[in-house]
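The instructor's notes for this session suggest beginning with a concrete chain rather than abstract definitions. Hand out the sequence below and ask the class to guess, before any prediction is shown, which regions might be ordered.
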Amino acid sequence: MPMDRVQPVSDSRSSPTVLSIECLKGSSKADEWTGDFLQTGDIVEELRIGNSSSRRMGTSGTLLLFTAPFKNGKSGVQRVLHDAYKKKETSILVRIRRGADEYAELQACIVPNDSAGKKQYILRSIADPNYTVGFLDRTESECLELQASRSARMVNALSSSRLQNGYVAYPWERRMQEFLSVPFSSCFLSILLLPKASDQVASRYNDLEDTLARANAWLNASQATGVPIAFMNVQTESLLTKISGETASSTVNAGSLSDLSNLANASLYGFEDYHGVDIGVVKAVRLWYAPLGGEFAIEIKLQEGDTKLGFAISRTEEGFIFISSVIDGDENAPSTRSGLGNLYKEATNASRLLVVSRVGNQKVLPWMVSSTGAIRCFDTVSLSMKLSLHRHTKVPILIHVLVWDRALTVPSGANRFRAPTPHVLPLPPEVQLASCPNENQIQPVPPEVPTGSRAVSDGPEVRPERDTAGELSFRFHDFSLSSNWV
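After discussion, reveal the predicted structure:
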């Protein structure tokens, strides 16, 4: 049922008013700039509301046809769309004209325009629901100008286009179990170094260069000792603290732009808030490192009659726990059954320390250096006690060690879709590890191992110690025993 045509009044000085397209939201692929999609300024020639396919097939359904010129323009079309929407006839086909002889069509559905109030409707493309158009009254000359300025409007749309935020649900628990070598634990290793206090009352601190030099020395000393790690990255971390008195007076007061140049190498600087309290910013250094060959899991299963585990642990001056001795000649020892003895021999032959990185999936690596210069690390005495409790309770021990040969570690993605428990690779006796040192790392001189001794010795560089370090003390005490047997 076509709408009543309104004959335009002939006037050479004005252009007739027509119903045109107004693009409200672009498609997801910017297809509105192709000839198949409608564009702003297109002249509407025909509207078909209803399911035309059902009518052609002889089934129930109505088809309403409206052609230009449209009575009352946009407002008249809005009333038509409102009536069709109330009757649940939301399918619509729009046919437009560009210039004199170029035509295009859009199959869409009628939807309410929530941003424009009641009884206002727009069209949403069936092919791309992101693309929506509306109607607007324009003169024919204005439409032709818009069609001619298509290239300029494309450039303008490109400059005004903005990326939108999005959210996606992610199965974190499953991914952390399937794609990590140690489930629910990262392989990122780091140590945080606080700036060293330069006086006893901790009112002054050494500069940032001194902290960086300490981090560099710690890494080089660890590599020279035989710890199989490689440098990854270094960064500064800003830690907030309260300062007052002499500490505040001795720090840089960043109150003006002229003071900013003094902050580049400062380890502690202060700000004064509105209440007169000085807020201090401490520049700490975080050193990131990684094992040369990754981490290797060893499960030590215990049996009735096991009176000892068969290995001893010690600690380097840099805070690393390592296997210092393994019993030899006892085939029934848990260390021999698990393959730890063979791995220890290969580490000794490669001039490497067999560093323990985790016990029961808990990291046991050094993690911080205090302002006094003491290294926060794990106590070998308490660790020995825990391992002994494993032996008494017959609970298997799962430890991870840092290796130097990537061929020994699990390939990337090999732990995919595994069971929730960590997959432990037993070390067969015939495994031979090839030493693949990094060219950029300091290689230690092969140690001279005394006859009959299985302890790793790198001369004066290695000083295994027992300690009584707690939460309040970082002092290390020397004992006559060089290692802790468990």
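Then share the key points. The first strand starts at residue 17 and ends at 25. The radius of gyration is 38 Å.
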